[in-house]
Write a structure and sequence with these properties.
236 residues, 10 helices, 70% helix, elongated, disordered N terminus
Amino acid sequence: MSKVIPGATKRRKRAAAPRAPVAPAPVASAPIAPAPERGGRAQQKLDTRRRIRDAAWALFTELGYDGTTTKAVAERAEVATGTVFVHARDKPDLLMMVMHDRLAAAVDAAFEALPRKEPLLAQLLHVFQRLFAMYGEQPLVSQAFVKAFPAASGPNGERLNALTFAFLHRVAGLVRDAQARGEVAGDIDPLAAAHNVFALYFAALLSWLSGFVTLGAALDPVLKSSLALQFRGLRA
């Protein structure tokens, strides 16, 4: 049971009476800056990633992969150590980040300058020559990368896997073009052929990594002769 308070009814009636709208009192304040746009934050993140990538590359080339620490990368990039781990899970993943951009640039440059009128074997050697040249710029860093890549599992390793799959499809496109020219048998699966080509390429890299041949010899004659043998089975 509720308690009735004298005069409460009158107060409620007065409170229920309609009021005229009240204009808000002016508030003196400093102008409020607009919130940063999402694109600005994204650009800032990209800039931070670039600084970390460039710092890692500089230290890998100066001190070697084994001699570089993530703390040193953070100091060179002028970011907190934790920020490095936002962009790379660990040091191997940091190496994947560095090499991803270099490989992507080398692949794009190779396909842009592709000799379209040459046979498939010459086109593939052209592409792989660009990649081997990129590896040759910093062979010790490249050796660390080739050794670490098969076990890469961080976010940048996943990006490299995606780059590899894209590369396979580009090679498959070259095989498909060769089929249209009558150079490769029509019943060959272009993507399967691209996988075989990539396996030969990686085996040539491993022969260099293991010290059996120089980087130049890994391209020619090792990879060149392997590809020539492969295309004896692909020929139309």
